[in-house]
Design goal:
Layout lengths: L24 E5 L6 E3 L2 E3 L1 H12 L5 E5 L2 H10 L3 E7 L8 E10 L2 E5 L10 H4 L4 E4 L3 H8 L5 E4 L2 H9 L6 E3 L1 H11 L6 E6 L5 E8 L4 H16 L2 H6 L6
Length: 246
Amino acid sequence: MRSRPSTYCALLLTLFCGNGHAESIQAVTEDTAYSYLQDGRVGGPASQVAEAMLQRAGLTDYSLALYPWARAYDMALQQPNVLIYLIARTPERESLFKWLGEVTRIEHHVYKLRGQPDIQVHSLADAKHYSIGVLRDDVRQQYLQAEGFTKLVVSAHNRDNFRLLLNRQVQLVPMPERDARLQCAEAGVDFASLERVYTLDALSSGLYMAYSNSTDDEIVARSRTAFDSLKREGLLTRLMNGKVEP
């Protein structure tokens, strides 16, 4: 059964798996529809992909950790041997990480609570008139700030961001449909209570796995080879679609 952390502090869960390599890898992620706490450990389809890739690469000394996005992102910027997933590959981030491969593609839709005719969004410029909930250091915050948005309310967690919308403390929230459905299910509200008002086409992109820049090139090369083999064999798709038991 899937459960959630009850505090807002960083949650670190480690899974140590032998000592097949001299370097220990920290695989870090955030709480999303693809990675979450499950039966006392970090699970979800993206986490299964990360583990399958590391094991196939022979990098068996690793840990999986669930953090607020800003902390996971900072670790991947500052520390060696950090694998971050899932992360949008943008031009601004291109030189900051050593990229492996695309795990899935994503679209960010802007949602409001249904039954609010006073909130009308037909363009990106329209959205500037309303308060918008975003995650700290997330690609959505970075993009909207670059576009001149000033009414951004920043949260550390997806669930906090969604709660602001439900409590009418923000008027809009951008998120993928899969995350929106998950947040509704966990909050006990009908997905139909949300209304999609706009799609951030500029943020439609691939979500990747990437290593910190200070990670040894041999580790990166082995991981790329392993990732490519998972993709070539179709195991990547099956894991992301939930067709392989953990």
